[in-house]
Write a structure and sequence with these properties.
The chain has 183 residues and is α/β, with parallel strands linked by helices. The chain has four helices and six strands; from the N terminus they run βββαβααβαβ. The longest helix has 18 residues. The relative contact order is 0.22.
Length: 183
């Protein structure tokens, strides 16, 4: 697909109303014909694993889907943030989305993606660049942590799951009740 940068879009905080409980009130909407994919990565405190997660919403803030991937033996935060950007593109492909705005609170990672910097996770950046061709437009933007509370919570919950990819399409991840085994 054709790559283009959109620089004239002025971001502003948008109140979300009651679209989803727990969604930060200052979520930043994308352009009307784009989908917004908030991403985050995180490391387990006591286990040797990390997670990368994404929550997708349309320009009105309506939930479209979410996913998380849990990785054994990956505990480098920038690597996990870059992997979360890859996961956003995988979810966008699952949802048949062509115009994406991927937002992360990791400014170093967003800068590396946009500038093609060499770093310890350059192989992930190459994968991102390769996957960009599958879409009409892909934007990578930095947004402060206060704008990604929902996806941050998804990462924290995902760290309790086993190594795998998890996708929630019909209902947000935080509404799903995960069964537990009771002895």
């Amino acid at each position: 697909g054709e790559l283009q940068l959109i620089t004239d879009h002025k971001e502003k905080a948008k109140p979300m109303g009651k679209q989803s409980p727990g969604l930060n009130k200052r979520w930043i909407a994308p352009l009307a014909d784009f989908m917004k994919l908030n991403v985050d990565g995180g490391v387990a405190k006591v286990q040797n694993k990390g997670a990368a997660a994404v929550v997708c919403r349309n320009a009105d803030g309506v939930y479209q889907g979410s996913s998380a991937r849990v990785y054994d033996d990956i505990t480098d935060p920038p690597m996990l943030e870059a992997l979360a950007c890859c996961e956003a593109m995988a979810l966008a492909k699952d949802l048949n989305i062509q115009k994406l705005r991927i937002a992360s609170d990791a400014s170093v990672v967003i800068k590396a993606i946009n500038e093609g910097s060499r770093c310890s996770y350059s192989s992930v950046l190459k994968e991102i660049e390769h996957r960009r061709r599958d879409f009409q437009v892909v934007e990578f933007v930095h947004e402060g942590r206060e704008f990604n509370t929902h996806v941050h919570n998804l990462v924290k919950c995902s760290l309790s799951l086993d190594h795998d990819r998890y996708v929630w399409l019909l209902k947000p991840w935080d509404v799903i009740i995960v069964p537990i085994v009771v002895d």
